[in-house]
Amino acid sequence: MIIQKTRIRNLERYLKGVPGDEQFTFASRVTPEIEQKLSRMGFSEEWTDGESLLPPASAGPSCRKNAEGWLIVHRDQPKETAYREFLWSWTEYHGPYEYEESRIVEQPYQRYPRTQVTPPAIEIATSTTDSGRVVVLSRSFSRVEEQDAILGVNVLLELFGEAEVLHADLSSVIPQEVQRLNWEVLPSGEHPWSHLQPAVKDVLDQQGERKRPVFENRWSTIASYKPDFTAVGRAGFSGYLIFGFPDRDLYILESAYYGNATYVLDRNWETLSTLTKAELLHNSLHRERIVHRDGWARCIDEILTE
Known about the structure:
Largest sheet: 7 strands, mixed
Number of domains: 3
Shape: globular
Distance between the termini: 58 Å
């Protein structure tokens, strides 16, 4: 059944004819216009089956929820003290001379407690059916995953304007091998911040004048320890960097958006690069979580010089 809406809230009417215990997936027909969209998103210009990519959060609210998660604000609980970082600038006077000074400071404020929900991180993949029909599709779902399934079809609707429910017995539609395109690994060798900065320029440009120096400071601090490689997130992973220290089995995940913390991972890069965003951010994967507060740089130093 073809769905042609901006988004849907309920699946039941679209799953008629799908047995209750059968899995299903959603797919969009690839037209020349959609093929251009996929290319701009990061898929290969030459059509290749089995490529998979997390849609960028900037594509719309469903894609943003899918890629970045969301906050549950607990308004029934007492407020707590939280902290935001920003660049503070001031002028110092020494006799007839003036000096502009600045530093990153914390500002405490009161807010209701909140829980960061890990993004579902539903990727879309390219495939060709046995009949030769070219499609881009979501992963498969069961009926007990109704909320994830609704988000999955809404992501396709937001990106391509239509989606079709497919039976899971169309196994040829689902790629057997997935080639994920979520990371761009910079060439090996030393990458000082001056070389790395252009790779994250688009993300930095989205930050305000007071927040941008905060992100630059964190990323340049980690880069100063001369990682063996740096992987820059693409599409739905935009704003994420992984600094690799494979000789020490250490991989530092830093984000401009998620969780207000730096994650220290100890899986090898080959494993990390194949994970979905939801898997990458799952608590059981990180060895340590360093909150973005005073003392962050000291903790990074202890980890990377131990």
